[in-house]
Amino acid sequence: MNLKKYVSRPFLLFFVFSIVNPIYATGITNIKETKVSIKLKNARLFEFFSNLEKKTQHGFAHEQYVIDKKETYGIIQENSSLEKIPNKLPREAQFHYDIKGDSIPIAKNNTANQKGLQQNSIEGIVIDELGLPLPGASIVEKGTANGVTSDFDGNYTIQVSSSNAILEVSYLGYLIQNIPVTGQSRINIQLQPDSGQLDEVVVIGYGTTTKEKFNGAVSKIRTKKLNSFSSANFEQALSGNVAGVQVVGNGKNPGENSVIQIRGLNTLTAGTNPLIVVDGNPLSEGSSFSSINNQDIESINILKDAASAAIYGSRASNGVILITTKKGKQGGLKVRYDTYYGFQDRIDNFQLADAYDTALFDNDARNFGYVSGGPGRSITDDNATRDANGGGKRSRVQGFLQSYLDGQPGLVNTDWLDATFRTASQQNHYINLSGGTEKTNYSVSFGYLNQENIIVDSDYKRYTNNIKLNSQISDHVRFGITSNISMVNSNPTGERGWSSHGTGAGQQPDPSYAVVLMHPYYPIYNLDGSFAIANQINDNNDNWDGPISENIIAKVGLTDFSERRFRIFGSTFIEVDVWDGLKLKTSLGGDYNTIFGEFFAPSSIGNYRTPVANNLAQAFENNTRRENYITENILTYNGTIGKHNFDVLFGFSYQEESSFNTRLESNNFADNNIRNIAGATNPSAVTRRSKWALESYYSRLQYDYEGKYSLSGSFRRDGSSRFGSNTKYGDFASLSAGWTLSNESFFPQDGYVGFTKLRASWGQTGNNQIGDFGSIALIDPDNYVLDGQLVPGAYTRTSPNPDLSWETNTALNIGLDLGFFQNKLFFTAEYYNSKTTDLLLEVPVPQQSGFSQSLQNIGELENKGFELEVRGSNFEMGDFSIGFNANISTNENEVLALGEGQDQIIANNGGMDFLTKVGGSIAEFYTYDIIGVFKDQASIDAATVTPLAGTEVGDYMVRDADNDGEITPDDRVTLGDYNPDFTYGFGFTVDYKGFDLSAQFTGVEGRKAADNMVYDAESGEGFFVPTQYYVDNYFNDRNPDGFLRRPDFSSFSSAGRITRASSHAVLDADYFRLRSLQLGYNFNDGVTKYMGIDSFRIYLTGNNIFNSSKFRGYNPDGLDTSSNRRQVLTRGWINSTSPLTRFVALGLNFKF
Amino acid sequence: MKFAKKIFLTFIVLFGFSSCDNDLEIVPISEKAANNFYSNEQELESAIIGVYAQLQMRGLYGLDLIGVGEISGEDSFEEIAANDGGRFGQLDDFSTNPGNSLVADIWRESYKGIQRTNVVLNRITAIEYNEASLKTKRIGEMKFVRALLYFNLVRLYGDVPLVIEETTSPFDYFGEGRIISADVYAQIETDLSDAIQNLPVEKELGRPAKGAAQALFGDVQLTQGNFGGALTSLEAVVSSNAYALAPSTSEIFGVANEGNLEILFEVQFASGFNVDGQLEGSSAGSQFRPSGTTANAKGHNLPTQAFIDSFEADDTRLNDYIGVDTGANPFYYSTKYEVSATGANDGGSDHLIIRYADVLLKYAEALNKIGRRADAIEQLNTVRLRAGLAVTTATTQADVELAIRQERRFELTGEGHRWLDLKRYGNAVPVMNAFFASMGSTVSIDDNKLVLPIPQSQIDTDPDVIIQNPGY
What is the pTM of this model? Predict the structure, then answer.
């Protein structure tokens, strides 16, 4: 059986037809691949080397024979990598060298001596971790100078002196392997990447550099880490893996973005999105991350400090994330196929009471509400008496309640949470074809993800395609094409729809949110299996005035909600070598994105507070199109004068984005036959268009001396259409310096302490995420009817601000890199301090101005923190190879100034106040501190502190924080915020023979959050189904020690209303999770050879296998992601989110 | 590579540096911008329409102003106190707290409306109108609306900030506190005097004419105890003969009767319009219905049984103004607001802010105060006769006053007058306390409760100068 033969041909064919629009990947620059052009005729060997030395600034340690050799050679080589140069000289030159450090020892191929000895010939292939051939790997007989390099296809042949020899195989960026020959004649070698590697490429804005030259703070995630977390979005895989990076937000639907927050919040009301750059293409803010397939990503580099990000100017203050997709390597066609199939389940702590417990609660809530609602009322009054006393429907006790209270078995006891969530399957397929010649490389991939939502009746299918092609079309000209296509067909669930189904935003049915309104006394299905429609809604409408909600499971079952997305983004470049070291590159990129969504709800089901009989069919259709293009021109020069190395860059770019949106809505349907807007008469249409443009000039100088001292500076000037006419342009500069101590001659070379570097950087970045026309006073329509005719009206919606400008973030970063044991153990420590000035602040203003908020550049904010990362790799213990990592980061923010004459902003969400005050941190919970419950009238009357007006028995006792003997709004206290004191993560990998095991843990400490659903369900209001926690802990006759307010359905006291948002609603949102766990097995050569493939791995993977948290809601990470803006001042209020899930899958990787 | 080729390619690439046609001056594409708006008659006219449109807001005549005027009084109650965050329920037992959303909405929407009038008044002087008389009239309309909104504010909240300029920067208002109500009243009177001068006698649908301004002026004077002034203003309305009572109490309200002669000023609503999700209907119809009776019925503002019981026999208004939800325990509701056929919160009934019956009764009130009792009785009887009732039996000044006050309850029920009337009479506290006592309730109020609390959000925004009313 030879799979390769049968499989690769059709693939190849497919590949050939599918190349339409390919990319460029940033070139790797390490010593081995240092490009050099050399042109010599009749040169002796030492001349050749001194020439090479001059050109590359790398020393060649040579022996006398190099000088002695009299023969002359001719060599003309354009832009060849340093490692390949020896191959270009005739064999008679008899030398090789092995690049290991800055100084390259040249050894003589001592063929003469070996002639007489017994020779063992060994051949094989060297491959990388993906099974792709590694050309240029060094294979040396250990303890001798005898060595060869692998050829273009990774093949090598070496003659060793004995069958007991040991081969030392090395390749830059990979772990060195020692392989005993033990009589074999064919040895295939797979190298594993060296995560402790130092000369690793650091991808930076508009280029790459090395760790020695780079002075900023960057975190890098490799493909392997990314794929240990299975999600449609790459950002989920970052969580817990990177110091200083938090991933918050947890959308209801697969493929929804989370918010990546780098080093705290640097803004109060502007956007908090970091800039995402894919293969050099800056994506527009709010781009869907899910249009990038995780598996297409080679690496993610996160620029955390301002100096590194400053080259991206006005868009960089939330950090910059550089994504590099996979590119092909030299060698024949390599095919890789990955697949997994798994299941997802909810594992959160949100628990609602069942019907019997809800009945206890309802009984209390209705009785208390009735009795406290007026004089002369008794708990023993029957419903007729209650009606006669003007109690209203909410004072009645449901007729069926008594049988629940009596504990009669077998009553309807619907578990709506259970009906809402399911074990959701997820399958993924990914095929990658790649390869290349010396001049051209390519990579093409296809991905398919089919993910069921854990919320019923919702799913997500994604198709992706990534093509990348780079080619050296002539000696001085290169071009590249990259394209990324994604297509999504999904059936989303609504977002935060209570139990309504309307055409507005957030009004589509959302069972996960509406579940707090679904009473367990009513069934989901009729006996015949059809949906039980109208039970709860009609019963409550007619009799009890509980939640007049339709069966939410029926609603999602009977409504149609679908979305189709298509996106293609990519770029093409051409680069010309103008002169020695001087390059000119021009590129054109584009991003075309369309979203089509539609919704239909028939009239055959009820709507919130609207029973079926009164209901209308509703539908919308939403069309969005976004077009973005960027043109970029970059001039680079790298040169060397003596030991001084320079990299200089000048660039210009122009980017423009236009967006178009049309939305049709109607509730005008003759019947339910046509299930889309086409069935409507006179749908209303809304059309919106917007546009922005950004013009930028930038430059950077990088300098280093002998790899010891490095200096870097950058400058960018951005002009944006978003800002006021007086402030269109902004300037952003950065400076950084580094000292690589370990390259100093005085540094001990004892092998214990390795790479050591001290670095500092300073830079300025901006934030321009304020919407497109924030500086202009906009006129909005506000129409009126006169005599039944619509008359157009207008008003000024926003206040003008011609001075509106960038937020400027100025940040300092100090870092230390420290390696031990040949850098197997590596520490990175960072300290940062950033200050945001000219805060873009949407501040509440005095309303007599006619406005509620105004967008201004005022205020100052400081963020500071420490980050520590430790990585260990390749600790060998027998057959075990062990690696580990750990990180911890802190962030502290402080508001330094707000608007003129303003020292605090109190923002409110859902009744909860948040205080942002000068001297404090952003959005601290600001509410009443509860110290007990008033259990009888006597204790209210006897209270030494005057309680809140309208306090009744069962209401909360509030702490008199200001000690003035009276509870007033001044007694609100700060109770922490959403920003954790610290976040941490740690993990390990163990390899043993063919097995590999990896685990990653993560946690946050010192975070507070309030959850809207918990808040409602624990308010004591009879409207909501209570949480089990509330039922167990509210004050009542059965539970006189209860510490939560007593329930009340109809006559909630004013004090009870105010204290709904109180310290009880501020929840501990810390957690500790086993974020990912993976166990894999690589089948040995015997198996793979039989199958005719290069490698075959099977693995079991799991996400969130273990979770420890006291948080009572779905997910403490679940900040609202639908609107990133304007959430900062009430951060920590979790409106609606999806539960934390556990995912377990079985996966396979094939390479051939 | 050949040198020439290299140079050529370099130039092609360099061309990229210069070939862009860049523009950073991007103006809104699907929205209008203020810097080039308000520049001609047509645009000013739509800004004026925007002023009227603001009156439709739920925080104003779409719901809240009606609710606060009724539920605070004794004739109307909230079916479910806890509903909608207790925004109406708290009015019922005077437990209104500063975080109440109705308190915040009335404040915010009033000032937004005031700002819209300020914008028009600031800009209109520089704009040339085809007919100068129309411009004069529009100025009158805007001053009328501004006066109306301030009159509401000052009655509901007491001292309030006073702004009569177009806002250039909202930040200018930090540090600007509440102005004593006498000064606010002075501005209201100035605006109304101007409006009376500028407005013509003939009424245009949906817009105030001279009569509306005179009637409002009369109300303002009456509220301040200036009975003589009020008499003059109200008499001017009556003697203009521009308005008349509708022939019967069934021909005043409802979509079918829009534009009838009794109406001096109304906010227009219509159902079935939906432009950009913006409805032109009123939510009063659905929300002021007993819960469960129609889509989005909330049981806000329902007439009490006691009030229903106090109607005189044969009063046509019981049937024409009040509906009943016949259940085990009947709930009543005002039929002055219709329910929409096209969905919840989209009722088509106009809200009548000033109508002639109200003017006549206020006129009677002023006449009686000034001692012209016979004239007062005559005006009162006009209203009573239309309702199918006999002439009043009251004869003494005190009895006539009482009779007029009673008549207002029945005639104007559900229109948001009762609480403001009680405050004008100066007996709100004793009336309400007597009412609570009669209900066996422990609630009792003092003068502090005559005004609403200032929204907590406004105090939080500018805590140094926006000071809470006492008692909250």
Answer: 0.83
